[in-house]
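Hey, I'm writing a tutorial for new members on how sequence and structure tokens pair up, and I'd like a real worked example in the thread rather than a made-up one. If someone can provide the structure for the chain below, I'll link this post from the tutorial.
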Amino acid sequence: MAFINKIKLTIYPLMLAMSTLLLSACNGKVQLPISEDDLDQISCDEQYQSDCPMSYRGELFTGIATYTYGKPTGFYRATQYQDGLEHGYSFSTLNNQLNETAWYQAGKLEGKNTTYHFSTTGKPQWVRLYQAGVQTERYLYDEQGVVTSYKRFENKEEVESISYEKGREWRLYYFVAGEKRQRHKDYYAGGQLESNSEFIYADYKKLNEKTYYRNGRLKTEFHFDRKANLGKLKTYGSNGKLRDEQNYGYNPLNTRHGLQLSFCNENGQVESSEHYNLGVADGEFKDYHCNGQLRNSRTYVNGLVTDKQIKTYDENGQVVFIEKLDAKGKVTHKSYPDEFGKWITHEG
């Protein structure tokens, strides 16, 4: 049947000839197609009359039924039946172009059902997968055959949905332990992955995210610990070295909370260390030279510096200046040695 998709012109007589050979009767002879207009619907206990079997001359119909509308080409359909129910292969054409193909089992769609961009490229537009008449998956394609969306179903409920951009996964919706989530993927103009993020659908809270440089190296990495209600963000340089490590709390919005670190680009040594309590400076703040030597240190309590003086050191551990602070943490005096080693003090 694969050659059917390639047929563009004069498909009607070819389809008709093929449908004649599709199904043999029980006696081994070829079963000629029967017009659907010659079939009768039998009354039954099904919820919908359309689900009741078809009969031909008083007996359940087994064979091929065809339907034609419009001259000279118009719409044409051929469907296999067994014991009055659609069973086997079915196809339809419109104006000599393939319109739809499907498979049935005991009157229910089973397997792949495909509809086509019959008026333009002839490529598949919708591809649906069925089990016992229930749709399980669905794909949508543009006229060039590039996928634009995908959906997956369980018990007739949508459990996964993907939107595509230029054939690349863009937005994904799915469920984890009954919770609806969404994943976003964004790309650079050249097609390289720029970011990959996971969110809680209900409140759009970010659970995980990775962003990338154009060269494919990891740029940032974020993870949210729901039990602790804490988030961690790591930032990397284009050389692959860790640049920053920040922690966040939620109250209710995300804000800096806990230890915050930054690192020297050349050797990865800690360059600064800070501590916050839900966005407020609280704890020790330290700055370092890239050789590991302490530059300066200060302590915050509820956003205010408690130190009476702060010493700043050079890379060799020598004091280069001293700052004196008042009770509100404001610098009142600054002292530094002159070229002769004598300390000079200035206000403010």
